[in-house]
Specification:
Layout (H helix, E strand, L loop, with lengths): L1 H16 L28 H5 L3 E8 L6 H20 L7 E8 L4 H14 L4 E3 L4 H14 L3 E3 L19 E3 L4 H14 L4 E7 L3 H16 L3 E8 L7 H9 L4 E3 L4 H13 L6 E3 L6 H7 L1 H4 L2 E5 L8 H14 L5 H20 L4 H9 L4 E3 L2 E5 L5 E2 L2 E7 L2 E8 L2
Parallel strand pairs: 1-2, 1-3, 3-4, 4-5, 6-7, 6-8, 8-9, 9-10
Antiparallel strand pairs: 10-14, 11-12, 12-13, 14-15
Helix pairs in contact: 1-13, 3-13, 4-5, 6-7, 9-10, 13-14
Length: 408
């Protein structure tokens, strides 16, 4: 179909050249969210969009603040994808301009950045914030302005679907959702032989609470027992008292959904207290900073679910790994890969829509089938979620090692 033709065109360049590399109606401009690209004048009408000489994709990302590693990684992946597409002639001869804005890892800044991209920079689509909390804060802006937004790593269920079951029409994602990650982790724990598990979750994070809930339900369905449940909050630094309580429950597996800054310290302190059982988390662990905080030795016998492994031998993935290393001098992680796929997903939809109108792009995103990405092939379901596999990664001496792939 049209979409496959588009992808083949993009992929051929990638393989051949190795690549060179209102708003809340009436709201005004914001000083927040620094843009790395110039904004343009012009209306926000369909006519203005259709006549645009440059296709603008916004990137509202965590480029500073507590989870800057996520946003910065997604941006690097998206930049590579845009370079590839532009090197191949762009979309219908139009070049893509990536307009980034730093949301500083804060909800209010994420809202300000989304407003700026939609109403001042007049982007045609956006790559959304990396975390579920920041992404959720911007959902209404996307719907109201009819600017499609795709989060690369916001995994909370309620980003695309509201509590009443209604769909946020202009909101999509390229990552799997929290319940899937929780189920994957529980099933992996069962495969390891875990019977009595403990959960230590970030109680200030919707992401962590979602994974913890799904993990608990699945591990109990598998016949396991949750012998201890404890919580921490973001920015905590001393976890030893709680970890001592967890140790006294004698678990044979500990699930720790959360972000790398706290998880790194938790893993380090857990090992110092003699907790030597397998530890596991979700894609929130995926950052080089985790290794710096925990230490390579402490991370042995730990696992995480993720969207991607640079060691996956699939040709498409290895081509991406090579191009990314040539451009950035490092191996790509899961967030790099998700940023790369997200940019391609949006570009593919714009090409199939044959229009820069927000509604047409939104419809094309929703109709995507068999998209061949480096984080896995996927089609989009009725809730705007990709149906895709998860990868289990194991840490060995500080390095992420491919363990297995789990299908939905």
């Amino acid at each position: 179909m049209e979409k496959n033709k588009t992808l083949k065109r993009f992929a051929s360049v990638f393989l051949a050249s190795s690549l060179v590399a209102g708003a809340l109606a009436g709201c005004g401009s914001s000083e927040s969210g620094s843009s790395t690209s110039t904004s343009t004048e012009g209306g926000n009408s369909t006519d203005a969009n259709e006549s645009a000489e440059v296709i603008k994709i916004g990137a509202n990302l965590e480029l500073s603040g507590d989870v800057a590693s996520y946003g910065s990684s997604i941006l690097k992946g998206a930049q590579l994808a845009i370079e590839e597409i532009n090197a191949n002639g762009g979309i219908d001869g139009k070049q893509i301009e990536l307009v980034s804005a730093d949301n500083k890892s804060e909800n209010a800044e994420a809202v300000a950045a989304a407003l700026k991209l939609a109403t001042q920079d007049k982007v045609h689509a956006m790559i959304g914030p990396a975390t579920s909390g920041n992404m959720l804060a911007t959902v209404q802006i996307a719907n109201t302005n009819k600017v499609p937004v795709v989060t690369a790593s916001g995994t909370a269920e309620n980003l695309t679907v509201n509590e009443d079951g209604s769909i946020n029409e202009y909101v999509f994602r390229t990552c799997f959702i929290d319940p899937f990650q929780g189920v994957v982790a529980a099933n992996f724990a069962t495969e390891l032989g875990a019977k009595n598990v403990a959960i230590y979750a970030d109680n200030s994070s919707d992401y962590a609470k979602g994974l913890a809930k799904a993990f608990k339900e699945q591990i109990e369905a598998n016949g396991g027992t949750v012998v201890a449940e404890e919580a921490y909050v973001a920015n905590d630094v001393d976890f030893k008292s709680t970890l001592t309580n967890l140790k006294s429950a004698n678990p044979d597996f500990v699930f720790i959904p959360g972000y790398y800054e706290e998880v790194g310290l938790i893993v380090k302190q857990a090992r110092e207290l003699g907790i030597d059982v397998p530890l596991m988390g979700g894609d929130g662990w995926d950052s080089p900073t985790l290794v710096e905080l925990a230490g390579a030795d402490a991370l042995n016998n730990t696992y995480m679910s993720n969207a991607f492994s640079s060691e996956d031998p699939e040709e498409l993935i290895q081509d991406f790994v090579k191009a990314f290393e040539e451009k950035n001098g490092e191996k790509p992680n899961g967030f790099h890969a998700l940023g790369y796929d997200t940019a391609y997903y949006i570009a593919d939809a714009i090409d199939r829509a044959d229009s820069l109108d927000g509604e047409a792009i939104k419809n094309a995103l929703a109709e995507t089938k068999d998209f061949a990405g480096v984080t896995g092939s996927f089609s989009v379901d009725e809730k705007h979620n990709p149906i895709k596999s998860a990868t289990i990664l194991e840490f060995k001496d500080g390095s992420q090692v491919f363990n297995s792939k789990v299908n939905p």
